[in-house]
From TrEMBL:
Pfam families: CBF_beta (PF02312). It comes from the Eukaryota. Transmembrane segments: none annotated. This is Protein big brother-like. One of its GO terms (molecular function) is transcription coactivator activity. Signal peptide: none annotated. GO terms for cellular component: nucleus.
Amino acid sequence: MNDFGSMGPGNMMPPSFNPMCQGLFEHQMPKPRLAFKMPRVVPDQKNKFQTDDLFKRLSRESD
């Protein structure tokens, strides 16, 4: 043991957390890009949901 404490790997911090080196290793995460398109909305969604066979079947199965 020396003046700096134990130098084992369990006590070592990565340079990004070392207060002496904060400016050197600043890492910025890339900004997320919008990778999907928003679905189009049907003008009369409620009527489409109530009349479409697929939606009727899914509604019955979920009950």
